[in-house]
Write a structure and sequence with these properties.
The protein is α/β, with parallel strands linked by helices and 194 residues long. Helices cover 36% and strands 22% of the residues. The longest helix is centred in the C-terminal third of the chain and has 23 residues.
């Protein structure tokens, strides 16, 4: 059993066409964490790209599933089995429509709130007990379909601020790896931009 190992999963859709989408903010955060670790993603047999290293003094595997968002659960459960990581040490970084833009919310367990990536994960893992770093993208304007909204790139004004907020989300992951959920919540549960 990998006693201290954390599996940090960024959710997104693979391929350049999706790279700047709101739905891919999870990939953006784990890309930054890989940079901080000085590692490069490599293909893993579990249908994901992974990089192994250390964050906050703990062993960590960062992962980006190579499946589409709504099928993320398969690759993540393969990685869980391969690295023998319990759900409580899996951290999932994902976009969240029901949270205002750039607001972070950290939690353990809970429902999927209509998020297809989380739905797939919960089903494949057979557990809701994984940790979540929820990155607020806000609701779509007017009558825009949420499914279209999440597959659009961030707006120009959001893109200006995006690196700062991705950096904060990466800090939140490190806080979860190196400490407790409660301590990380106390640090990062402040409101988004004024």
């Amino acid at each position: 059993m990998a006693d201290d190992l954390f599996l940090v999963v960024g959710l997104g859709n693979p391929g350049p066409a999706y790279a700047g989408n709101r739905h891919n903010v999870g990939f953006m955060v784990v890309d930054l964490l890989a940079e901080r670790m000085g590692g490069r993603f490599k293909a893993h047999k579990g249908r994901a790209d992974t990089v192994e290293g250390r964050l906050a003094g703990r062993r960590v595997v960062l992962a980006k599933p190579k499946s589409y968002m709504n099928e993320s659960g398969g690759p993540v459960s393969s990685l869980r089995d391969f690295f023998k990581v319990p759900a409580e040490r899996i951290i999932v970084v994902h976009d969240e429509l029901d949270i205002p833009w750039a607001t972070l919310r950290l939690k353990q367990g809970g429902g999927d709130n209509g998020h297809n990536g989380l739905k797939s994960l919960t089903k494949s893992l057979g557990s809701k007990d994984y940790l979540r770093v929820r990155f607020g993208i806000g609701r779509p304007p007017g009558r825009q379909d949420p499914a279209d909204f999440v597959l659009k790139d961030f707006a120009a004004t959001e893109r200006k601020e995006l690196p700062f907020h991705v950096d904060r989300a990466a800090d939140a992951v490190e806080a979860l790896v190196g400490g407790t959920l409660e301590a990380a919540q106390n640090t990062f549960h402040v409101d988004g931009p004024a």
